[in-house]
Design goal:
Number of helices: 7
Structural class: alpha+beta
Helix content: 10-25%
Strand content: 35-45%
Strand order of the largest sheet: 2-3-4-1-5-8-7-6
CATH class of the largest domain: Alpha Beta
Number of strands: 16
CATH superfamily of the largest domain: 2,3-Dihydroxybiphenyl 1,2-Dioxygenase, domain 1
């Protein structure tokens, strides 16, 4: 059993057109699925490659009364616009399901070679997907010879890669054991300060997950965990030049919530509830 590339991170939104407009103004978007309706999930979705190791899935869930008991509409009704979950490709999804089950993690099978974990067992829901031919919409990155377009590589925001996805956990020791055990992750480093404890774990071939346990009330991380529970909190991109990235945000009319010498946080009101950070500092011990 081997977990591979990141399949996608889901950003639940209330207006898919508005979300596409935001991401299109800020990032290079190579859209390969546009406004796809799933009657199984009761949602519209757009899938877009932002960097070669990061795909965002924008989801607008059905608001129809008869659909509100389905997972995605239920989540949207409860939490509103925010990050929802992470998903990876896996070369042996049934084998991974057995491994998770043996660890006491509840697993639900879906369509097209997909499994989902129970969010209470894995610090937020995780999805694992078999690759082609079972995946209904082939990811262009899985095709031999694929590479980012010249326009994406020259985009003024200057993305290098997704640095990491931060997920909120109430118990860092338990989260670390899950990610280093059944998920076969590799610990890159740990850090702590007065605000939070962090463990940065390489999952699969190209994704780093920052398991973050907040320690101090009044911080974004603490307040998000208190309000919403254990879910993905944010994602961070490594950029070539932070000053150039700041200039691009200004020219695009996108406000920032926080700006420092090594990072910028886009105003979540502008990014439709997602916390998106830019940095020019590579992660300690990052092998990518």
């Amino acid at each position: 059993m081997s977990i591979g590339r990141l399949y996608h991170v889901i950003h639940m939104v209330e207006d898919l057109d508005a979300a596409e407009a935001f991401y299109g103004a800020v990032f290079p978007m190579e859209i390969y699925t546009h406004h796809e309706w799933s009657d199984y999930d009761k949602r519209l979705a757009t899938l877009s490659i932002l960097t070669d190791n990061f795909v965002i899935e924008l989801i607008e869930a059905s608001r129809a009364e008869e659909d509100l008991g389905v997972s995605l509409p239920k989540f949207a009704s409860r939490f509103g616009a925010r990050l929802h979950s992470m998903a990876w490709f896996c070369d042996d999804v049934p084998g991974l399901a057995r491994r998770l089950d043996a660890a006491g993690i509840r697993v639900l099978g879906g369509q097209y070679g997909t499994i989902f974990t129970h969010p209470k067992d894995t610090f937020g829901q995780l999805q694992f997907q078999t690759g082609p031919p079972e995946i209904p919409v082939p990811d262009p990155r899985l095709v031999a010879g694929w590479e980012l377009s010249p326009a994406s590589r020259k985009h003024p925001i200057g993305l290098v890669r997704c640095s990491h996805v931060t997920t909120m956990v109430a118990d860092l020791d338990a989260a670390r054991a899950l990610y280093l055990g059944p998920l076969d992750g590799r610990l890159l480093h740990e850090s702590s300060n007065e605000d939070a404890r962090h463990a940065f774990v390489l999952v699969g071939t190209d994704t780093v997950v920052d398991l973050a346990q907040p320690l101090r009330a009044g911080t974004r991380l603490y307040d998000d965990l208190e309000r919403n529970g254990q879910l993905p909190h944010s994602f961070t991109f490594l950029v070539r030049d932070l000053d150039e990235a700041r200039a691009h945000l200004t020219s695009a009319g996108v406000p920032v919530a926080e700006s420092g010498s090594s990072s910028v946080l886009i105003d979540p009101a502008a990014s439709l509830g997602a916390l998106i950070e830019l940095t020019d500092i590579p992660l300690l011990g990052d092998p990518r």
